[in-house]
Amino acid sequence: MPWLLAAELRKLIRPLVWGTGLAIIGFCLLITWGGANNARGALASPRIPDVCARAVTAQCRQVIAHAHAAARTAAAATSLLAQPGEIGHVAAGMLASVPGLLLIALVAGGHWGGEWGSRTIRQLLARQGRRTRVLAAKWLTIWAAGVAALVCCWLVLAVAAPLIAAAADLPAAHAPMWAGLGSSASAAGRAAIVLGLFAAVGTAAGAIARGQLATTAITVGSMLLALLVAGIASIGRLSPASFVQAWMNFDAPGYLPTNFWSRFVSDSQQPGELAGLLGIVLTGAIAAAIARWRFSADVTV
Amino acid sequence: MDVISCEGLTKRFGPAIAVNGLDLAVSSGQVYGFLGPNGAGKTTTIRMLLGLIAPSAGQIRLLGRRLPDPRAVAQAGSMIEEPAFYPWMTGRVNLEVLGATGGGCGPGEAARVLHLAGLADVAARKVKTYSQGMRQRLGIAAAMLGRPPLLIIDEPTNGLDPAGIREIRGLLRGLAAEGTTVFLSSHLLAEVEQVCDRVAVIVGGRLVEEGAPAMLGAIRRRVRVEVRAADSGAAARLLARWIRVPARHANGQFLVEHDRGRDVNGVLMAGGVVAESVTVERPGLEDRFLEITGKEDARAVAAGS
To answer: What is the pTM of this model?
Structure first.
């Protein structure tokens, strides 16, 4: 198994994986830059109701003061979130939500579905006939690619986010640079489990689709379908997307969003945190069983 | 000891039978040829030998282990149809990855097989820049990784130039001389004749003939007889017991399935026909192959009608 894992990890050293990882990091940088600029914009001109724009009544003065205070609070929160310790929340949240799903889907497509498309699966299985091991190695390496992207994303944001916040003239975060490191690490750990779920879905998709594009499409499609189902009041709690939301406990998006998930799942439908974890584990186990069943079929490519 | 042993091997794809009750026995150290026309079931058989597809019936023993034991397949080197590699990797890295997939090879193993396959000079180039012939050589190199006791190779000389074909032929013979058993399928019958110790012919999923190539060619030597056109009818009647291919006695020419010219001539003489010429022929494998596959096709057509 260690040899097989080493071989599979070596296969990840390819333009597709680098390119996808860089795209995710670039996306996180853009989100951070956009969030910082939004916070600066709100600070410069807080959102004031039209009715108060001209009428200077005591009530309006209070509303305007509230709007300024809210903008300052939000800007300070954004500035704090842009600190190297706290920014891990953004990296973890992004990788445990739609951007991370896209990364896993693309990696699963190239790394696993591509074995069928390029017909290298024949060589692979002729050398390693233990198909469960092959599946496990594929799942582990797809997951490892996601975790590596999470770590790289956090490292890059840790360097760039404070600079972006400073460039946006956000108020200084009156907190140590590494404040929030513990909670960020916890979020990253939780994100790693969600990435494991995405990788399991990607592995099952590869075994079902047996092709690069179809693997990517099934991985993304199945989880987006779960997100849609999560929005249905009667059954939303049973959707894997709700399990992810409950487990990650994603906040509602602020100026600097920490995820691309919570906006699709309403708070009222969230199961508990432990139920979320159990749901993730159960969904992953179902995906693994489907992958094992489908992968035992004849290889005719 | 039989390195490969198949008993009653059958594979069905829905209603279609790709391989039908195939029995094979390949002894250690042999170069064993596996011949058949397109769609005969060669590749399906090889896929079953390598555990890629499961037989519908029958059993396979590979290197003493009964499939689907994955340890048996892992011990065999293989190349199936057109070899496929990871195009973004160099030839050397591809081999190292394949070696690791099977449990790891010793240091320098990739370099050794690259040298044997004549690819040492291009080992550092990415596979996407390789020609078809180079990929074919890389496929053979991959099959030789780890000095497997059994090589299962599908069309090993596809895409190679004549010099390359000769080189690979020599390489396979050399491997056999060192004790490696080679099981190869090929359409290049002349090559099979030169390289293989034994040959099996499969048509319509069934084994129709098996033996040493020389025997396969000589097992039924034929006698070519030429008589005057006026004697054709009488000669056809006299030789009817041996003539199995009616189309071959046109214009006073007969091809008689018998190995002794004296007997044929004696029958003609006894019947009052004087032959213009009587020649004993030893057909090449190609002729036999076409003949066997033609008969089987005709049988299949007859069965269908």
So the answer is: 0.84
Within 8 A of B87 by CB-CB distance, chain A residues are 118
pLDDT of residue A267: 65
Q: Which domains does chain B have, with CATH numbers?
A: 2-87+142-216 (3.40.50.300), 219-304 (3.30.70)
- Which residues of B lie inside 8 Å of A (Cβ-Cβ)? 47, 50-54, 68, 70-74, 76, 78, 80-89, 93, 96-98, 100-104, 142
Length of chain A measured in residues: 301
In this predicted structure, the answer to whether residue A197 has a pLDDT above a threshold of 90 is yes
Cβ pair B199, B211 in contact under 8 A: yes
On the question of pLDDT at B300 being above 80, the answer is no
Q: Do A3 and B100 touch (CB under 8 A)?
A: yes
- Residue extents of the structural domains in chain A: 2-24+93-152+171-295
Q: What are phi and psi of B155, to 5 degrees?
A: 50, 65
Whether residue B98 and residue A128 make contact (CB cut-off 8 A), yes or no, is no
pLDDT at B305: 45
B198-203 and B206-211 strand pairing? antiparallel
**pLDDT tens column, B268-292:** 999 999 999 999 886 666 666 677 7
Paired with B211 in beta bridges are B199
Q: Enter the tokens of residue B190.
A: 């002349």
**Could you tell me if B44 and B81 are in contact, meaning their C-beta atoms sit under 8 angstroms apart?**
no
